[in-house]
Amino acid sequence: MRAAAVHDRDGQDDDAHGELTAVQAALAAEHAAVYGYGVVGGRIAGERRTEAQAAYDAHRARRDALRRVVHDLGGTPQAAAAAYELPFPVPDAAAAVRLAAELEDRLAAVYADLVRAGGAARRREAAAALREAAVRAVRWRGSGVAFPGLAERAAAAAPSGSASAAAGAL
């Protein structure tokens, strides 16, 4: 009976570590999104620029909230990279719109991971973030996917087969 109690405690530590890892990944993705939306905003004008500004502000707010969550979980928040490698050249407004949709797709994948790893309250927050990313992706792209954030979709789109972006890459 005592061995089972120790095992349960270890399982809780693993769960907490998994949640912290998933929150750190979401924080890294939000850092990349903030950078990416800076590029998007520099290439588009008019109503789309207003939409990009709103997304930029939303991602900054989520990034700041995730920093606090990392602290609350006992971790040190991951810092933003000085720059990020874009997934493709962004010379014009059309490419900027594609980049915005790509950013949101990648965020949806990271938040799907956080839904799996988080506790009940964190799961709700992550599901809301996933939903927001999916809605923004549809607005940018003009169409959506049946199940945003699924690893199978991200694996088909990303050459690395990873749902999460590598450090330093969008």
Task: Characterize the structure shown.
Residues 22-152 form the DUF4439 domain. This is DUF4439 domain-containing protein. By secondary structure, the chain is an all-alpha fold. The protein has one domain (2-157): Ferritin, core subunit, four-helix bundle (Ferritin, Up-down Bundle). Helix content is 72%, strand content 0%. The chain has helices at residues 2-43, 46-72, 93-117, 120-141, 151-157. Helix 1 runs antiparallel to helix 2 (46-72), helix 1 (2-43) runs antiparallel to helix 3 (93-117) and helix 3 (93-117) packs antiparallel against helix 4. The N and C termini lie far apart (48 Å). Residues 1-11 and 157-167 have low confidence and may be disordered.
Write a concise keyword list for the protein shown above.
disordered N terminus, mainly alpha, 170 residues, Ferritin-like, Ferritin
Task: Describe the structure in brief.
This protein is mainly alpha-helical and 170 residues long.
